[in-house]
Design goal:
The chain is of the alpha/beta class and about 425 residues long. About 35% of the residues lie in helices and about 15% in strands. The longest helix is centred in the C-terminal third of the chain and has 19 residues.
């Protein structure tokens, strides 16, 4: 039965469901309203209730802004039936379409928490939900980590209003994410170590994340390959805007990517799969300007300086007792394995942290889905490792489905993901 659940966890992070949320931003510098519940939706098949929330945070420039997110609660702890044993802080992966953020109903990971007596907490990040009219701060890890931490703090304030109490003898806090979410997960650890000593993270799980952005940039220029071109373009657009590099787009992009950036990437009308299909090539030089391809150019050097400021493989130290599990696919061309190599080397070999507390798993010996790229295959292993740890290290048990249901859902999942490719 556990094997069946492990296979089902491969579905994490992709199936879309729809919801509604609205809120207002405050750009006046005035104090923002306190956190509040803005909507409730019940998922009977999943035995889960989602509470959409608004909460005060900061935008990429440090100005006050209202952001949105979601709290998810299983029937086993809803309405005070039993105390919660902890929180799972879910840092979402790359999304582009406006209905893919947690407050709009993309809650697949949270649904797998049902039955565990844990509460799910998920930020939309800047650029989705309340701020969907803005360019997302894509892979600006410090910004997304702040949104995530502020969402956690707001959720804790709101728990009494939805009859959630915490079992203080346990009070776990699991922090996790894959891909962009993996970067945010490590950035959350960094932010907590630097600014929030009262937040105690039990265990972080970071998979397939771009922790060393400069190394990723260098590798893309050398190999001329990107597994998800949309993500590299999004990094350039976000860092140019939020680090105020000041370059016109034709100094960053070329070809169709330059001509269609507003529609494809900033309109929030398409999924990542749809955008990459429209881009049509995995070649870095297909969409990157000649100045971006030249690591010695002014544009390249200035971008590299901005990326260095978000480099998680240097200049920080986790809080005492931090436990961080790193998982990466050895054949990943979307987020090159050098990211995990450099982060692990920094944490263990440079800082001298314990290999029991900082663990790394390099996956790829088993191909779960032949038609799925390495990055997506790595997400399956990421899910397996999380649940194995929660079950065997922390003693959790989960609501399990039978193998027939697993096979049916897995088939539907594959059809949904690859129907447009």
């Amino acid at each position: 039965m556990k094997k069946a659940f492990y296979l089902l966890s491969a579905l994490l992070g992709t199936v879309l469901t729809l919801g509604l949320v609205s809120c207002n931003k405050d750009d006046s510098g005035q104090k923002l309203p306190a956190a509040k519940i803005t909507g409730t939706k019940y998922y009977p098949e999943d035995k889960m209730t989602a509470y959409n929330i608004e909460y005060p945070s900061t935008d990429p420039f440090g100005n006050p802004v209202t952001l949105s997110g979601a709290i998810t609660v299983g029937d086993e702890i809803k309405d005070g039936k039993a105390p919660a044993v902890g929180v799972v802080l879910v840092n979402h992966f790359t999304v582009y379409r406006k209905d893919q953020c947690p407050s709009k109903g993309d809650l697949m990971i949270q649904k797998f928490v049902v039955g565990s007596h844990m509460v799910g907490v998920s930020a939309d990040y800047y650029g989705f939900g309340c701020t969907e009219d803005k360019n997302q701060a894509y892979c600006v890890g410090s910004v997304n980590a702040q949104a995530s931490i502020d969402c956690l703090l707001a959720a804790r304030e709101l728990f009494p209003s939805i009859n959630i109490s915490m079992d203080e003898s346990k009070n776990y806090l699991f922090n996790l994410g894959y891909s962009q979410g993996g970067q945010t997960t490590v950035a959350v650890e960094k932010l907590v170590a630097e600014k929030y000593p009262d937040i105690k993270i039990t265990h972080s799980f970071a998979g397939g994340g771009p922790y060393d952005m400069p190394a990723t940039y260098r590798e893309m220029t050398q190999t001329d390959i990107s597994g998800m071109p949309s993500t590299i373009i999004s990094v350039m657009l976000a860092f140019n805007e939020y680090y105020q590099l000041g370059y016109s787009r034709d100094r960053l992009l070329r070809g169709d990517a330059l001509a269609h950036a507003d529609d494809w990437l900033l309109s929030k009308n398409y999924t990542q799969q749809e955008i990459d299909k429209m881009i049509g090539s995995l070649s870095f030089s297909n969409f990157a300007s000649t100045e971006i391809q030249d690591m010695k150019s002014e544009v390249s050097q200035k971008l590299m300086q901005a990326l260095e400021k978000e480099n998680l493989a240097k200049t920080w130290r986790p809080a005492k007792g931090a436990r961080i599990a790193l998982i990466h696919h050895k054949k990943d061309i979307t987020v090159p394995p050098v990211n995990q190599v450099n982060l692990y080397d920094y944490l263990v070999n440079t800082l001298g942290l314990s290999k029991e507390d900082i663990t790394e798993t390099v996956v790829g010996d088993i191909t779960w889905m032949e038609d799925m790229p390495a990055h997506e295959n790595g997400a399956i292993d990421f899910a397996l490792i999380i649940f194995d740890t929660l079950i065997n290290k922390y003693g959790f048990d989960f609501w399990l489905l039978n193998e027939e249901n697993v096979a049916q859902m897995l088939e539907e999942f594959l059809k949904e993901i690859f129907k447009e490719q």
